[in-house]
Request: fold
Amino acid sequence: MTNFIIPFIVLFVIIYGLKNRVNIYDSFLEGVNEGLSLILKIFPTMFAMTISINVLLKSNIINDVVNLFSNFFNYIGYPKELVSLGIMRPISGSSSLIILNNILNSCGVDSLAGRVGSVLQGSTDTTIYIISLYFSSVGIKKIRYSLLVGLLTDFAAIVISFFVIKILFY
Amino acid sequence: MINYIFGFFLIVGIVYGSITGNINSINDVFIVDSKSSIEMVLNMIPLLCLWLGIMKIAGNSGLIKKISMFMSCVIHPIFPELNKNSDAISYISSNIVMNMLGLGSGATPFGLKAMDELNKENNNSDTASRSMITFLVINTASVTIIPTTVISFRALNGSNNPTDILLACIITTFLSCLFGILLDKLMYRIWSKYD
Reply:
């Protein structure tokens, strides 16, 4: 069903363009050109962020910090595996997917950790990455309170997902 | 700020890695793995070019203006500073709709284009405008109705009912997005006093 959405959006745009006597081929090429220059503009940011994120990941510090506080998370009844996911989610989409996959594997898909993890992965995004990419694409240097609000919103999602699953399933 | 995040990640990673004996894998990032970041950019090129091409047709045919006019009554209360007939409204709504359908990577071209339009209204300043921050808060809160990737991961790992988390996802995503929008409005008030 969802496979129909994108092709039909394209179909609609093309027909609408022809109906309004737009040169759709030239317009398309114009947009492709814009895309290429946009890529050149955002390439340095994407490159810099992936390198620094990879270095942080490979040092293993996030796992070690989570393990350090594992007693605390046991005490409040929050699955420890989800903490790594919560920390990773705003930083890197691909690594948080790997962590989620490990949780689904080891704790079970329909366990508390598996369900909360799925909701967490599905309802938040890579905040740090998006903020640096989007702002640098238009040359913004002073990002003001955006990162603070973005990360606090992610934290809210961590808390909300836990309680929503608790209420709906347990 | 991004300046400090970049430095912080590198310093913490290298120092911690050398202390704990992980320096080999960090060395690999600099020597071997750097090509993985190129792959990421390469993967993005076709998607970006394709969608900006299609959006150009939509723009030249007046479709973008129509969508903007239609959506502005919904979007405007959230972005009070935005010009009522701005093209940004159309790109912002396209970005949100793509995210809702769980087509995250398809949302990026619209998001970047929305930032471009918001930048024009910001007189190309190097300071983020109020609308830009609100847009990014909504974007990173990621209002998703169908989290396609998560559902497929649950199915692959043998869930009896991979979609039984959908309701929980929708509740969480709307509540956290609402929280983000309210916090954004509050922070705007507090921040303007110190600017």
User: Anything to note?
Assistant: The mean pLDDT of chain B is 88. The radius of gyration of chain B is 20 Å.
